[in-house]
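hey can u check if this looks right to u? its 70 residues, i copy pasted from the old doc so theres a chance i mangled smth
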Amino acid sequence: DGTVRPFRKMMIFDEAHKSMGKGTVSADMLKMVREMRHRGMWVIYASQDPESVHPALIKLSTQQVKVTVI
């Protein structure tokens, strides 16, 4: 239809478990995820330790992908 859509920003946190020490989550990371739609951005976080992902981040996630390598 020729509509120009604004570029969405993407923030990627690799090794996110390092920002979530002992079950806590970075306050800035949590705020960013809470406001991602308002800011027109996507937030992707990846971790080798899925159990370390804070429950609040999981609750705010629109999609989750979990891969187990055997």
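The chain has a mean pLDDT of 78.
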